[in-house]
Design goal:
Elements: H1 17-28, E1 31-32, E2 42-45, E3 53-55, E4 71-72, E5 77-79, E6 89-90, H2 91-96, H3 101-113, H4 135-138
Antiparallel strand pairs: 1-2, 2-3, 4-5, 5-6
């Protein structure tokens, strides 16, 4: 994902999920799985294989409309979306300062209410083209 590493994501920095699925399908076969997760992954199976393959295709296929995830960073920030730097809650500071459970529930409910359900390219990310933190800093 192009978060803090923009130089890695030019024309050759990533491969679309459709291209990956086509390559797998050509070599081993690939079908949609009967197993469905409760998240943003599109799930497939290789015929005869025991497991499944899940594709979370942020760069090539928008899944925002079915994303049920939030991100809690290693340093205590809760964000409604990995790619959105607005609307974060500093849970670590709130918890250490004695914020009540009711107040935290209200803050988290408000955060869930603003969780974007639009394509990542049109999302208000709260930045001007450069993310302030890399994936490893966020917890990805």
């Amino acid at each position: 994902m192009p978060i803090g590493n923009v130089h890695l994501f030019g024309d050759r920095g990533w491969v679309s999920s459709a291209d990956l699925r086509e390559s797998i399908r050509d070599r081993w076969g690939l079908t949609e799985s009967q197993v469905r997760g409760a998240g943003p992954a599109d799930v497939f199976q290789i015929p005869g294989a025991k497991g499944t393959l899940g594709f979370i295709s942020q760069m090539s296929e928008c899944f925002c409309d079915r994303c049920n995830r939030m991100r809690l960073s290693a340093d205590g920030w809760l964000r409604p979306c990995l790619l959105n730097e607005t609307g974060q809650i500093d849970l670590k500071t709130a918890l250490r300062s004695g914020t009540s459970t009711a107040q935290l529930q209200e803050q988290v409910s408000s955060l869930l209410a603003i969780k974007p359900e639009i394509n990542f390219k049109g999302r208000d990310s709260g930045n001007k083209g450069i993310y302030t933190r890399t994936m490893s800093q966020i917890g990805g």
